[in-house]
Design a protein that fits this description.
The complex is a heterodimer of chains A (165) and B (74). Helices cover 85% and strands 0% of the residues of chain A. Chain A has 165 residues and is mainly alpha-helical. In chain B, α2 crosses α3. The chains are: A mainly alpha (165), B alpha+beta (74).
């Protein structure tokens, strides 16, 4: 598995974890009766908090991933070739992490998949309002479709890396 | 019915004649990742014109000697 694929898998896992955490937290609160169905302020605040958590978590996870990957490359190279020096290891790490035109093309194509899904979610959210569901349902459809869209984007990225762009 | 075309390449052969140049070496010289070279060699990715010229330049040949545009054989 290449560096880009590993990074994508880490992104997918963190996206799923954040979405699952949001669902667990909000639906538990809702089931416990701590939230009234019309309490828009609660939902908006929770979503903002989870957006913040999502951004911070994805940055931290990516940093940790890069550190772990660099260490694993260095250890693997040292095991295979005892005489290898630090500059050689650094060169290997840099060459593993090169981002080129193919990565950019795959990113664009998978972004499109994510945006299409989020767009469908937006339309579904509007339909929810048309069919007299509460604005809370609309908000949740929007939030979940945007989050699921970003996870789907990761899967699309993985697909393009495996099957060719 | 319109003919179907595909882009084929001689990168593996050119690497062999370039003193068995590794994919990593070619990637470094062309300024891309090894995965991109693997994908191009396997026909899973068609490079941009610029990258195609850079790859040809690494081997010191013309672009036509690296890539060919042929009718697809089904």
């Amino acid at each position: 598995m290449s560096y880009q694929e590993k990074r994508t898998v880490v992104g997918i896992l963190s996206g799923i974890a954040i979405l699952a955490a949001y669902c667990l937290y909000t639906f538990n609160r809702y089931a416990a009766g701590a939230v009234t169905p019309g309490d828009l302020k609660f939902w908006a605040t929770t979503m903002l908090i989870f957006i913040g958590i999502g951004i911070v978590a994805s940055i931290v996870i990516q940093i940790v991933f890069h550190i772990v990957l660099s260490i694993s490359i260095a250890v693997t190279k040292t095991i295979h070739n005892q005489a290898v020096d630090d500059k050689e290891i650094e060169k290997n790490i840099n060459s593993e992490m090169v981002e080129d035109e193919r990565d950019r093309l795959i990113e664009l194509k998978s972004n499109r998949v994510g945006f299409i899904f989020a767009g469908i979610g937006f339309v579904a959210a509007l339909f929810a309002l048309v069919f007299d569901y509460s604005p809370v349902v609309m908000l949740n459809i929007l939030f979940i479709s945007f989050s699921a869209g970003s996870v789907l984007e990761g899967f699309a990225q993985l697909y393009f890396y495996r099957r060719g762009a | 019915m319109a003919k179907k075309y595909s882009i084929t390449n001689n990168i593996r052969k050119l690497r062999f004649f370039a003193n068995e140049m590794t994919q990593q070496e070619l990637a470094e010289k062309a300024g891309v990742s090894r995965q991109t070279i693997i994908a191009i060699e396997a026909g899973k990715y068609s490079p941009s014109l610029e990258l195609a010229f850079r790859i040809a330049d690494v081997f010191g040949v013309t672009i036509g000697e690296v890539f060919a545009y042929q009718v697809k054989q089904d």
